[in-house]
Amino acid sequence: MGNVGVSISNSGADEFRDLAKRLRKAGRKDLRQKLRKKIRDAGQPVLGDVKSAVTGLNVKGTGGGGVSARRQFNVERATTDRAKKTAERRGAGLRQSVARATKLEQTARGVRFVVRSNMLPPDQKNMPRHLDSEKGWRHPVFGDRNVWVSQKGGPWFGKTIKRKAPAFRKAVLDAMDEIKNEIKG
User: Fold this and answer.
1) Which secondary structure element, helix H or strand E, spans residue 147, and what is its range?
2) Which contiguous run of DSSP H or E holds residue 162?
3) Interatomic CA distance for residues 73 and 81, integer angstroms
């Protein structure tokens, strides 16, 4: 899944980098941490909305059974009673896995929202991109290459972030102004 950044604007991004440099040179670790916390706090509502968007996404398919079929499949494969109980309890589906892997990252260049593919099972690493696509994807049912189904997601990642970007951008700029004032004072 490609990273989606929320740009502050070129001048805002330059100000962010300059402020970060000034804080590093001044040795003001306390203010750097305060800025990072304010940005993280401002991003949490956006991150929550992105996670809600993916978990609430209506994935349409031409067959298959999703979580219930996966759970039943795992229960049938379990060899002990304990394994069967665990399989019945589990069943976290694709959308929940993608939501858990969705994070807010802060870098020297700014802030971005990402889906960390290393937090997804190997067979689901490309799925966030497919879920975000109107086009959809095809896959074999439980690995049976003779039975294929098509599924479609819908835009949830960039669309949600763009909708929340103005408020988030304002909160980041306000936090930067507050830190600048503390440096001067």
Assistant:
1) strand 144-152
2) helix 157-184
3) 15
Alpha-carbon distance 160 to 97, whole Å? 18
> pLDDT (tens digit, 9 = 90+) per residue, 31-76?
989 999 999 999 999 999 999 999 888 877 665 555 555 566 666 7
Give dist(CA 134, CA 147) in Å, integer. 22
Look at the chain and report how many structural domains it folds into.
1
Count of beta carbons in the 10 Å neighbourhood of residue 2: 11
Domain that residue 164 falls in:
4-184
Check residue 91 and give left, alpha or beta (phi > 0: left; psi -120 to 50: alpha). left
Per the DSSP assignment, residues forming a β-bridge with 137 are 151
CA–CA gap between residue 32 and residue 24 (Å, rounded): 8
Separation of alpha carbons 8 and 39, rounded Å: 12
Q: What is the pTM assigned to this prediction? A: 0.74
